[in-house]
């Protein structure tokens, strides 16, 4: 197979194959890619922080407003539901008109939602504000993964997907930490106002520095010499060439004679005109539910989010009550543990995951398959479920607060590992339809999150904190363990659905759409 190779080592085949266009995001300089990653992280913070800022100040909100704990958790559940289903609109919009305008508009509307939230006086208003916040903030859930796939080669994505996942999760964990101090000093309403101010700054930065990453790659010509790939490997990922029969590798070349975009052109809000196919893109996202890998990835991604949401929903009431009696600021401080754990686990999952894939390729005649990365979830399986016992039974027994904080940290970090593996799995399995594939993943994940946020208050009230988390321990154990059958049967499902996949890819190529 004629393929372009990495400049650092000819052993690694560059996937996707870059063009010679200097404005191809894959060909951007490292500094240009880093600026793009910075803007993506800033976007995650600008939408993620407002979504989680109230977790440590639930008690002050209840004491100083007409809202109840059930109202607040219901609003959070609705917000996460529309974070998921909103992707059905915004993901196709990003493909049709560009990712850059979608990101900027998303932050702009979130700003106004945070200004409105402190003035809500009824449960209906609160839920309406959270519904809109979730819908317009939905790009945070699935568009960032595609932006990373736009600018990084497959063998590089693991570490950068970890950076993305860290920013996404830390935004939800650092928000309660800061919000607790703001609430103690200025009142809970200023938690929302400071989020709005931060979003205002973010809109300005994104407008001037975030570039469009949509890029339509030319289809490989029919007369190009391509080695026939065995049927069972047609959706496998070739990452390392080891056979002696390979032709001379093509050198990685960028034609600098081609004109690059000017800074003014980079500021344009809309991407290049394309045929109007918004309705087809929405339908294509729904048809991706037919692929078992997509559905399982959504379920697995949801597990990590669901269980940490349970901790968020119960943490403020546990730490604010005897024997702990923490203030809002001290409840916020407890989120330092999951922040530190998230950073540590992200380093492990990103670097170790990439190494697993490359090592697997060396052992399997140059072919590394998406399932090779799933072995990372063994760490999640060992560490995750037991922490529910530590949290729930520990709180019921009134153990030292350090035990509960330790459980928060491990669940936050291990949940990131599960999220990282599931995102990479679906994108590596269906890379040419990544944008469409991520929509059902997020819909499944956030529907799970909505259900848990909606039901956690009556669940705890009816079964008690101890029994709730004992049940959560065994449910999570069963759910996390599902990665084991996927390692062995995931490839079979991909081979069984390959004809449908390639027909969708061809349709996208015919329409001239980016992935």
UniProtKB/TrEMBL annotation:
UniProt main location, coarse: membrane
TM helices/strands, residue ranges: 34-58, 70-90, 102-119, 131-153, 160-182, 188-209, 289-310, 330-353, 374-393, 399-418, 430-448, 468-489
UniProtKB keywords: Membrane, Transmembrane, Transmembrane helix
Pfam family, one: MFS_1
Subcellular location: Membrane
Membrane-topology annotation of the record: Multi-pass membrane protein
GO CC, one annotated term: plasma membrane
MF GO annotations: transmembrane transporter activity
Signal peptide (UniProt feature, chain positions): none
Organism per entry: Kuraishia capsulata CBS 1993
The protein's name in its UniProt record: Major facilitator superfamily (MFS) profile domain-containing protein
Gene3D superfamilies, alphabetized: MFS general substrate transporter like domains
């Amino acid at each position: 197979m004629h393929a372009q190779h990495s400049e650092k080592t000819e052993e690694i085949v560059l996937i996707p194959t870059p063009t010679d266009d200097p404005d191809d995001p894959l060909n951007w300089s490292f500094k240009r890619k880093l600026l793009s990653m910075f803007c993506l992280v800033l976007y995650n913070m600008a939408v993620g922080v407002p979504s989680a800022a109230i977790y440590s100040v639930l008690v002050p909100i209840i004491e100083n407003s007409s809202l109840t704990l059930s109202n607040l958790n219901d609003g959070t559940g609705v917000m996460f539901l529309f974070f998921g289903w909103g992707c059905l609109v915004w993901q196709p919009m990003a493909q049709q008109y560009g990712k850059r305008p979608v990101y900027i508009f998303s932050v702009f509307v979130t700003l106004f939602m945070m200004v409105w939230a402190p003035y809500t006086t009824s449960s209906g208003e609160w839920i309406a504000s959270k519904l809109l916040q979730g819908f317009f903030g939905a790009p945070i859930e699935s568009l960032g993964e595609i932006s990373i796939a736009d600018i990084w080669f497959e063998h590089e994505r693991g570490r950068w997907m970890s950076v993305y996942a860290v920013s996404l999760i830390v935004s939800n964990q650092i928000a309660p930490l800061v919000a607790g101090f703001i609430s103690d000093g200025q009142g809970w309403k200023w938690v929302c106002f400071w989020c709005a101010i931060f979003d205002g700054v973010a809109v300005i930065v994104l407008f001037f520095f975030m570039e469009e990453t949509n890029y339509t790659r030319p289809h490989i010509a029919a007369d190009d010499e391509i080695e026939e790939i065995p049927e069972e490997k047609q959706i496998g990922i070739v990452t390392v060439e080891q056979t002696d029969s390979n032709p001379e590798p093509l050198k990685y070349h960028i034609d600098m004679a081609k004109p690059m975009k000017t800074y003014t052109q980079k500021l344009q809000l809309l991407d290049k005109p394309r045929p109007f196919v918004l309705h087809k893109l929405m339908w294509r996202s729904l048809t991706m539910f037919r692929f078992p890998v997509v559905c399982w990835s959504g379920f697995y991604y949801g597990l990590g989010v669901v269980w940490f949401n349970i901790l968020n929903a119960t943490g403020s009431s546990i730490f604010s009550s005897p024997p702990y009696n923490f203030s809002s600021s001290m409840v916020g401080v407890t989120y330092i543990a999951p922040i530190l754990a998230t950073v540590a686990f992200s380093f492990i999952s990103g670097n170790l995951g990439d190494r697993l894939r490359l090592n697997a390729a060396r052992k399997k005649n140059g072919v590394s398959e998406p399932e090779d990365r799933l072995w990372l979830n063994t760490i999640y399986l060992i560490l995750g479920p037991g922490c529910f016992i530590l949290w729930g039974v520990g709180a019921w027994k009134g153990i030292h607060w350090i035990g509960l904080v330790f459980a928060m940290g491990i669940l936050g970090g291990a949940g990131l590992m599960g999220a990282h593996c599931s995102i990479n799995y679906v994108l590596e399995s269906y890379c040419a339809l990544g944008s469409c594939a991520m929509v059902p993943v997020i819909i499944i994940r956030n529907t799970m999150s909505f259900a848990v946020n909606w039901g956690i208050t009556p669940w705890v009230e009816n079964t008690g904190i101890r029994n709730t988390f004992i049940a959560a321990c065994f449910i999570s154990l069963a759910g996390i363990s599902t990665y084991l059958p996927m390692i062995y049967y995931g490839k079979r499902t991909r081979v069984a659905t390959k004809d449908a996949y390639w027909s969708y890819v061809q349709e996208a190529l015919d329409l001239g759409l980016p992935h």
